[in-house]
TrEMBL record:
Start and end residues of each Metallo-beta-lactamase domain: 13-191
Reactions this protein catalyses: 3',5'-cyclic UMP + H2O = UMP + H(+); 3',5'-cyclic CMP + H2O = CMP + H(+)
Keywords carried by this UniProt record: Hydrolase
PANTHER family hit by this protein: EXODEOXYRIBONUCLEASE WALJ, METALLO-HYDROLASE YYCJ-RELATED
Top-level taxon in the UniProt lineage: Bacteria
SUPFAM superfamilies for the chain: Metallo-hydrolase/oxidoreductase (SSF56281)
Protein name as catalogued: Metallohydrolase
Keyword Hydrolase belongs to the record: yes
Segments passing through the bilayer: none
Gene Ontology MF terms: hydrolase activity
Keyword Hydrolase: yes
Length: 268
């Protein structure tokens, strides 16, 4: 059957992704109202009652806005590390003790036959993480909200068949934009967000592996555009000697206002 996924929506206004394998469905983050999450799920013919749990990357509002409401509505377990739990508790409301699940950074958990690994990323949150998903044959990695790709990140996502990777901003658009300088400095810093060029550099280091597709995620509506992100990532890869045909590798889009089509990790 293989690992399937859909990025329900991704951007500075909210983020949520669904991973499906056999009879398991997991959602990463819940950065929209419960009503909006239900709408996005319905667009991909999923209901909240089909979910087996929610994995949390970090406590920023664009990742947990609807977390408490969705978890309570569908009686879902919520998985996060200790510092993220502490940082988000006052924002998400009461979660029953039996649904408060600790998932430590660097730990691996099995959900049926699907193995999930948590790994640390560099971002200005309590203890932010990314996630890798394995079924013994295929690997999907989801990593957004990071200022740079550390050796630990690169180790975690190497060998991925498909990657969901942040390409948040075009550096010049951000520098010329309306944000105050302290916010620009935060985004550009090592605990901020990955630029298009930085995403291209990450991909150039992975292209000698088995990666088939990369979904460019968490694009800024203020300081990026889909076509620009894809062009800039490709150019950054080519500058580092990585040339590819679309039949061999594809850069794919995510959207701030609608889900991506269901994708199967093992497909070409």
């Amino acid at each position: 059957m293989g690992i399937r996924f859909t990025v329900l929506s991704s951007g500075s206004t909210g983020n949520a992704t669904v991973i499906a394998y056999e009879d398991i469905k997991l959602m990463i983050d819940a950065g929209f109202s419960a009503r909006r999450i239900d709408e996005l799920l319905a667009e991909r013919e999923v209901t909240g009652s089909e979910l087996n749990g929610i994995l949390v990357t970090h406590e920023h509002s664009d990742h947990i806005k609807g977390l408490g409401a969705v978890a309570r509505k569908y009686n879902l377990p919520v998985y996060a590390n200790e510092l993220t739990w502490a940082a988000m508790e006052k924002h998400i409301g009461a979660i029953p003790d039996e649904n408060r699940r600790m998932f430590g950074t660097g730990e691996t958990r099995d959900f049926g036959s699907l193995r999930v690994e948590s790994f640390p990323v560099s971002h200005d949150a309590a203890e932010p993480v990314g996630y890798c998903f394995y079924d013994g044959k295929e690997k999907l990695s989801v990593v957004t909200d990071l200022g740079y790709a550390s050796d630990r990140v690169m180790q975690a996502i190497s060998g991925s068949d498909v990657l969901v990777l942040e390409a948040n901003h075009d550096v010049e658009m951000l520098r010329m934009g309306r944000y105050p300088w302290n916010l620009k400095r935060r985004i550009l810093g090592d605990m901020g967000h990955l630029s298009n060029e930085a995403a291209g550099e990450v991909m150039s280091l992975l292209m000698n592996g088995r990666v088939k597709r990369t979904y460019l995620a968490h694009l800024s509506r203020e300081h990026n555009m889909l076509d620009l992100a894809k062009m800039s990532v490709r150019e950054a890869m080519e500058d580092r000697g990585c040339f590819f045909k679309d039949s061999e590798f594809k850069l794919c889009e995510t959207y701030y206002d609608r889900p991506t089509p269901w994708d199967k990790v093992g497909d070409l």
